[in-house]
Amino acid sequence: MNASATPDWRDQIFEVLQDHDVKQVYHVPDAGHGKLIEACQRSNSMHTLALTTEEEGIPLAAGAWLGGQRSVLLMQSSGVGNTINLMGMPKTLRFPFLTLITMRGDYGEFNSWQYPMGQGTPKVLEAMGVLLYSVETADEVKATVDAAARSAFNGGQAVAVLLRQKLIGIKNFGKK
Amino acid sequence: MSKATLQRRPLVKQLLENAGDDLLVIAGLGSSNWDITAAGDRPLNMPLWGSMGAPVGMGLGLAMAQPKKRVLVITGDGDMLMSLGSLATVATQMPENLAIVVLDNEKFGETGNQATHTSPRNNGPTDSGAGTDLAMIARGCGIPDATTVRESSEVADLVKDVRTKKGPVFRLVKVMVEKLEFVMPPQDGAHLKDRFRQALLGHP
Predict the structure, then answer these.
(1) Domain annotation for chain B: domains and CATH numbers
(2) Interface test with B, best of A48, A66, A89 (most B CBs within 10 A)
(3) Shortest Cα–Cα distance, A52 to chain B (Å)
(4) 8 Å CB contact between A73 and A54
(5) Mutate which of A60, A70, A95 to test chain B, going by most B C-beta atoms within 10 A?
(6) B64 interfaces chain A, CB cutoff of 8 Å
(7) Which residues of B touch A53 (CB under 8 A)?
(8) Which structural domains are found in chain A, ordered by start?
(9) Nearest CB to B61; choose among A52, A62, A93
(10) Does the distance separating the beta carbons of A60 and B60 come in below 8 Å?
């Protein structure tokens, strides 16, 4: 993974989440989100929860909103498939929902098992009424996540930001 | 195991007796929804009409957002079976203000009372389950205070624990299979959410 070429976009996401007063951060372990997750874990202003499956993040977000708090779900494209039925909750309850998705099976992916859900991710999110934003370059990350947070928390939408594999880097398991 | 004798409606009514502004209630779809509504619909009830598997996660998110309020999740065995992992997630946070009550009638009520996995083994060709013990699962997930209630003599303690004991509290309550009247709250999810927030936060 080529993290050194784009050293700071994860830090920028953390700043945006703080600026938008996000209090609960849900995640599964993820290399792409790893640095952001650690920043959230170290933060005094955020509750960071590890989930057993991405699906849990949606009712958690609903409960947080019922109680007056903003949240974000960090997941990988493969996890999107685990969320589909409950992804209807933001529409049914009409509450703001923000998710940041690191893409696999997207751009130069070596693992064939990642392609079906990676390629299906935008389609299933759209089918469930989730607004999609997409980022391919590091210099667009901050503005895009900020816009997504505004659409969610000010505009009341369910919004997903797809952090494309071109941005994250192609996973090569240590091979050059 | 002896047959269940507790009835869910009067039990839930007792659980919610004199519920004030400090009790936030989430109920799973189907029977649990009708149960809390039969006890008296109120803005600080969030009865679900769908989203099976969601109540425990919702309760956890709410309990963390509102640490000074008591959060009570009431749901059924079928709903709980769909989100067993959420109990492990609760255990990572150990919210002191969260209580979870699972009304276990060993049936999928909404689809015609088919046996759930909590139904005993060797219970006939169409009603056999696995004897799954949800309280044991909750303990195994890392929620130490997870017990089973079967007798009417235990209900007073159940109510006290659910309303006041330091959480997370998990109670599996074995209840009878009954045919009960549907007592329905408003269905519109946005309305239910808005009235809840209005009552809790003073704005929708």
Answers:
(1) 8-201 (3.40.50.970)
(2) A66
(3) 6
(4) yes
(5) A60
(6) yes
(7) 85
(8) 9-168 (3.40.50.970)
(9) A62
(10) yes
Q: How far apart are CA B106 and CA B115, in angstroms?
A: 6
Residue B175 is given by DSSP the state: B
**Cβ contact, residue pair A60, B51, below 8 Å:** no
Question: Which of B51, B64, B201 comes nearest A89 by C-beta?
Answer: B51
What letter represents residue A58's amino acid? I
Predicted ipTM of the assembly: 0.96
Counting one residue from chain A and one from chain B, the pairs whose CB atoms sit within 8 A come to 115
DSSP state of B154: G
Decide if A58 touches B, using CB distance below 8 A.
yes
Burial class (CB in 10 A: 0-12, 13-18, 19+), A93: buried
- With CA atoms as reference, the chain B residue closest to A95 would be B190
Q: How many residues does chain B have?
A: 204
Between CA A112 and CA A105 the distance in angstroms is 7
Q: What is the pLDDT along chain B (204 residues), one digit of tens a residue?
A: 568 999 999 999 999 999 999 999 999 999 999 999 999 999 999 999 999 999 999 999 999 999 999 999 999 999 999 999 999 999 999 999 999 999 999 999 999 999 999 999 999 999 999 999 999 999 999 999 999 999 999 999 999 999 999 999 999 999 999 999 999 999 999 999 999 999 999 999
Q: Both tokens of residue B169?
A: 């509290």
Handedness of CA B108, B113, B114, B118 (dihedral sign): positive
Q: CB A139: neighbour CB atoms within 10 A?
A: 10
- The stretches of chain A forming alpha helices (DSSP H) are 9-19, 34-42, 57-66, 77-80, 89-93, 115-127, 141-149, 165-168
**Distance of alpha carbon A162 from alpha carbon B78, whole angstroms:** 34
